[in-house]
Design goal:
Strand order of the largest sheet: 10-11-13-14
Number of domains: 3
Largest sheet: 4 strands, antiparallel
Structural class: alpha+beta
Number of strands: 14
Number of helices: 16
CATH topology of the largest domain: Lysozyme
CATH architecture of the largest domain: Orthogonal Bundle
Length: 463
């Protein structure tokens, strides 16, 4: 079916559609960024007026790409019954998926993976991009911090790419392909994604020692992992034949929901929403990785906007003449209380505390990066070094020294405050401090190295 879209002309930005044959471009892509894998259209010299799709219905495309065999096990039947008894829950998660599924299906198809894999975020996060589990797994694909670092997902003051739609999807598919190559079946790959590759290997060794098969259904697995693949297969079955289970799937057209725009200058999140004329809720569900009120050009970040709103953004940006960002970042040179840091930097203490999420009574440790308003003294965009390596570390000040005991009847001298101590705050000297990191920083490992996953991913329970 022929899809016609208005041409979006934008200076110094790119249009990112998706990532396989029927949505292609000859435009060279940026290097050293996952999102560059998706073919893009350079809006300075190209237009997108005609786009072909194999079908008008994305659900049909998903069904056509099924490669896994249904399990037809009691656990799968139980999961299907559970979902069919909760049509409102299924409808909410299906509706949320409408923003992301086209892109994910495109990426899955590009790798010739089963399209059942595109349904995995239903199991992991119910397609809630801000989902966070009790074990600190994050995003649509529920990456743990260490596994995210293994797959080069930046986690710092400015952004957490475990929540980034494009970055986390690419990392998750990389991970699943690696696991499938290691274990030789998608069922075992999925079990390893949930429980960890090391645990699956140990379970297989135990079976081998006992003369038992080593396939997914033969292994001794924890309850969560035992139910993990049946849950995915239950969603597979419902998408295959929703009417049989009293489920009504939302209409999903087979074309991109969002446009990916490269950031050429730092720009405030609030300004993007204003120029795109988009509500905060819609912006957040498409751009959940941003931790701060400014989006950085130096970090090769992209803004996702619904197709029509990207066109509005472009038109409003053309006539906008004021500065695009009102925030910058600096590195703190010494450990001190927030009010002293604010005085040193010449900024309002409440603003400093609020924008950086610093609780009262905490000190900022030397080497930390803080976000502050731009001034005439600091007018520039955030540097690449800070954009990629910013971290914020806080600690509690040591307790004040105990007053000296005086002899009975003797006059005690007044206790002088320690040097650098401010009224109402205790001295930063004389005492060990507890270091509580407020971000993970940037500790990327080689992508093709071994992945050490925790024993359980702690899947979020989203209602």
């Amino acid at each position: 079916m022929l899809w016609k879209y208005a041409v979006i002309m934008m200076i110094a930005v790119l249009f990112g559609c998706a990532s396989t044959g029927d949505w292609s471009s000859d435009t060279p892509t940026k290097t050293n960024t996952r999102a560059s894998k998706a073919p893009r259209v350079n809006l300075n010299n190209q237009s997108v007026s005609k786009v072909y799709a194999p079908s008008s219905n994305l659900w049909i495309r998903i069904r056509d790409g099924y490669q896994m065999e249904p399990m037809n096990s009691p656990l799968e039947i139980e999961q299907v019954r559970w979902l069919s008894a909760k049509p409102d829950y299924v409808n909410r998660s299906m509706t949320r998926s409408s923003r992301y599924l086209f892109y994910i299906v495109q990426e899955v198809n590009a790798r010739n993976m089963p399209t059942e894999i595109a349904l995995l975020p239903f199991v992991e996060s119910a397609f809630v991009p801000q989902a966070k589990s009790g074990a600190k797994a994050m995003g649509l694909w529920q990456f743990m911090p260490a596994t995210g670092k293994d797959f080069q997902l930046t986690q710092n003051v400015f952004r957490d790419e475990r929540r980034d739609i494009l970055q986390s999807t690419d990392a998750a598919l990389d991970y699943l392909q690696r696991l499938n190559n290691q274990f030789g079946s998608w069922e075992l790959a999925l079990a390893a994604y949930n429980w960890g590759a090391g645990n699956i290997t140990k379970a297989q060794k135990r079976n081998l020692a006992a003369g038992l098969p080593t396939d997914y259904e033969s292994l001794q697995l924890p309850k969560e992992t035992r139910n993990y693949v049946p849950k995915l297969m239950a969603y597979r079955q419902i998408v295959l034949d929703p009417n049989a289970y009293g489920i009504v799937l939302p209409d999903l057209e087979n074309h991109p929901y969002f446009v990916a725009i490269d950031v050429s200058n730092d720009i405030d999140v609030a300004l993007v929403m204003k120029l795109a004329e988009i509500p905060s809720e819609e912006f957040q569900v498409l751009n959940p990785s941003f931790n701060k009120p400014v989006i950085l050009a130096a970090a090769n970040q992209q803004i996702l906007l619904p197709f029509g709103h990207a066109e509005v953004f472009q038109e409003n940006l053309k006539v906008y003449t004021k500065p695009l960002s009102s925030w910058t970042a600096v590195q703190v040179s010494k450990t001190e209380m927030v009010d002293q840091t604010a005085k040193t930097l010449g900024v309002d203490v409440d603003t400093l505390r609020s924008v950086n999420g610093i609780p009262k009574g905490m000190r900022i440790r030397a080497g930390s990066t803080v976000i502050i308003p731009k001034t005439a003294r600091r007018p520039g965009d955030v540097s690449m070094t800070l954009a990629d390596n910013a971290s914020l570390s806080l600690d509690k000040p040591p307790p004040p020294p105990s007053p000296k005991k005086c002899k009975k009847g003797a006059k005690c001298p007044p206790v002088k405050p320690a040097k650098g101590e401010t009224k109402g705050n205790s001295s930063p000297k004389n005492g060990a401090s507890q270091h509580k990191s407020a971000s993970t920083g940037l500790a990327k490992s080689a992508k093709n190295g071994s992945v050490n996953t925790p024993s359980s991913k702690g899947v979020s329970k989203i209602q």
